[in-house]
Structure formats: C-alpha cells, structure tokens
Amino acid sequence: MVGILQFLKGYVRIKIWGVSPERFLNLCSNKNILLWDISKDGNVYTMCISLNGFLQLRPIARKTGVRAVILQRYGLPFLLPKLLKRKVFFVGLLLCVAFWIISYRFIWDISLDGNYQITQEVFQDFLAAQQVYVGMQKEDLDIGALEKEIRRTFPEVTWTSAKLSGTRLEISIKENDAPIITEQPRDQGGQDLVSEYSGIVTSMIVRSGVPMVKIGDTVEEGTLLVEGRIPIYNEDSTIREYLYTTADADITVEHTMIYQDTLPKSYIQKTYTGRTESRLFLRLGSRELKLPMERPYLVYDTVIQGHTPAVLEKLSIPVSWGQYVYREYMNVEHEYTLQQAQAILTEKEVQFLQTLEEKGVHIIEKDVKIEESSVCWTMEGRIQMEQLTGRLVPTAMENETSDNGEQNE
After folding, report:
1. Residue at a domain's end among 283, 300, 335
2. Alpha carbon of 358 to those of 252, 350, 351, 387: distances in Å?
3. Cβ-based neighbour number of residue 75 at 10 Å
C-alpha cells in the first residue's frame, strides 16, 4: 500500500554532496521530510524523497552547503504528461478500459454441470424459452427464479445451483439417480425361454421355470428351453394347477455362424493440388462476420484457424478471429491390392471377433478366406462359437384341473 501511495504522489531519487551532508539529513528529519533507500559512496549520498519533500529542500541545502541533483523520477505525476503527449495511445487506453467495464455487465458464457439424463441441446432450448442467453445483461437475470423453473421443468432434477462468476453463468444440477419404480400390471401369465440359435446345448443353469432340454441336446432356433409354467401336483400325482413364472436360465449353445464381409475393389482418395485460398472472419458469440468471397474451387476442404486472446478467454468473452483456409483437391480413383484388401478385411474381422468376446462369446474355431470378384473383395467363412442363448416369449395358457376333477377355463 505504501508503494502505491508513493507512486501516485510521485518521488525522485537524488544525489547530495557538499560541506555537511550529515547535517542535511538531520534537518530533513527535524522537518518531517521522509528519506528512504539511503546509500553512501564516499562523501556522496543517494536516496529517495517524495516530490513534495524535494520542493522543500532548497533552504536546507543552502544552510548546510549541500548540492542536490535528481537522478531519476518515478510515479504518476511524471508518467501522465508523457501519456498525454501520445493521444492515440491514451485514447486507446481509455477505450480499452471502457470496453472491460461495459463487457463486465453482460453474460458471455453459460456452463452446465452435472447433467446426465438432460442433454445440452434440451437445456439450451429451456434457457432460450426462459430468455436466458449469451449476451444478456446481468441485471436482467433472476437467479432464484431460474433455479425454481429448472426444478419445475425437469422433475428428475433434485438440486440446482446457479451463480455468476465474472461474465460466466455457472449452472450446476444433480439428477435423481435412483431407479424410477413403476407399478407393473399384474399378469397371471408366464414367460418361456426359447433358443435364438440352432446348435448343441453345452451348459445350462436354470434358476426358475421347468427345463425342457438337457446338456448335449440338439436344438433349433425357437426350440423351447425352459418353460414358465410349473405344474403343482395332487397326492395322486395328478396336476392340480399351474404356477406361471418368468423363466430364468443361463444356457450356452455351441453353434456355427456364417461370417461375410466385402470391400469394394476401388476407392477414392483425396489428392491435394497445393492451391489454397484464405478468408478472414470475426466471431462475436454466435454471430460471425466474413469477408465476401466466391466459391474458390470445384472441390475443396476447409481448415479453420481461429485465435482467442488469453485475456478474453479468461473473462469468458466469446470474441475470436482468424481465417478459413480452403484447400483444393482432386478425387483420384485407386484399386486395392491383394495385400491391402487382406489387411483391411482381417482388421475388420478381428474387431468383429473382439466385439463378440466382449459380449461373453467363446470362439472355438474359425475358417474364413478371401475371394476376388470383378467389383469387390469378399471375406467369408464359418465361425464356430459357444454363446448364451434365450429369448422370452409368452407362456401358452392351459386349462387347469381342480381337485374334484373339473376343468377351469
């Protein structure tokens, strides 16, 4: 704080020498003239003194026979006249300060944190409906009303907080991660488990339902594996009634899958000509100003080279500029060689097998080969695997037999 006050009032560094410099220092102390950063080199003293104090030195220097010379000048009183001489710089400085002051009154960025079920697009539409947007004045924003409206519009939001941090509106929400329990309609029917593939049953663990196959059986697609209808018997081994449930089991089937993938013999590759064109742009928020320009080439791609000053980025002011670079290219047709086709198709096959293994499929054996036709390369063959199977279907309702031998619908 002392250094700031000294800079605002101004001070100088002086050099003194003469008959009695020690007496000069004592008289300055008696008159409450502050001296600091004093150093001695022989009979010469150098020190700092305030601008007001320096104006009081003439009678003291005359009385003590000391001469005082200014070495350096510091502070705003000496800097301001230099700035006033440079009118363009001074005006630019004033405009810059005015720009920061005015910009600070607006919201230039909106961030959302904690959303998982609510997408950014949905929330942006909500903010637009509430007249909350980038570029609005801070004084037009009612944070309390915005928080209430978020909780009212999105029932899954259990907590919300909105605050202004500089020119950024930061919105944090917490969604209800508990499962939504809905009342299931009561259904007296059950569900069976049927096979999705044709093959041989290699393992089975039944948790509910009546197993209809055993390990080693050959099943077809749609074969009933586990029945969701459990018979309840009388003492005389006759069926009294059926209990319907949802069949639940882990059943593994060994089956063979036909694998096929194709790759066109020819492909298009971009070949750049080396010719480029540039187009300057200035982006203010969602608006963009571009220099007029006709379509540069017949076919081209675009590279955006943008720049945002670090100061504007820290203040969250969405102002950037740069250029669009248009690069001309030609579409050149090429053909895959056998080696290239093998590498590409093999890579796709490996990715396919990895996807199956991630799903718990066990690959036993594979036999694939690549063939060439006039238009494409084809990889096809057989893959032998073990895979969990089971698809739920409604259980057929049967007539039930009561204790007295009568049938109930």
Report:
1. 335
2. 16, 12, 11, 12
3. 17
Rounded Cα–Cα distance for residues 309 and 321 (Å): 9
Q: Give me 209's structure tokens.
A: 């339902």
Question: Model confidence at 224, in pLDDT bands (50, 70, 90)?
Answer: very high
Nearest to 188 by CA among 347, 400, 377: 400
CATH (domain of 151): 3.10.20.310
Q: How far is CA 18 from CA 40, 299, 347, in A?
A: 13, 85, 93
**Higher-confidence residue: 399 or 308?**
308
Q: Which helix (H) or strand (E) holds 26?
A: helix 21-30
Structure tokens at 69: 């010379």
In 3D space, the residue among 173, 162, 165 whose CA is nearest the CA of residue 132 turns out to be 162
Mean pLDDT, to the nearest integer, of 150-160? 89
* Residue for token pair 């637009």: 128
* Residue 254 pLDDT > 50: yes
* Listed residues 175, 197, 212: the one ending a domain: 175
Say what the pLDDT of residue 197 is. 92
Q: Are residues 282 and 331 in the same domain?
A: yes
Residues 168 and 310: their CA atoms lie apart, in Å, by 15
CA distances from 325 to 236, 274, 383 (A): 89, 12, 49
3-state secondary structure 333-388: EEECCHHHHHHHHHHHHHHHHHHHHHCCCEEEEEEEEEEECCCEEEEEEEEEEEEE
Look up the domain containing 133 and give its range: 109-175
**Around Cβ 201, how many Cβ atoms within 10 Å?**
21
Single-letter amino acid, residue 330: M
Query: Among the listed ranges 84-88, 114-118, 253-257, which one has the minimum average pLDDT value?
Result: 84-88
Burial label, 291 (beta-carbon count in 10 A; 0-12, 13-18, 19+): exposed
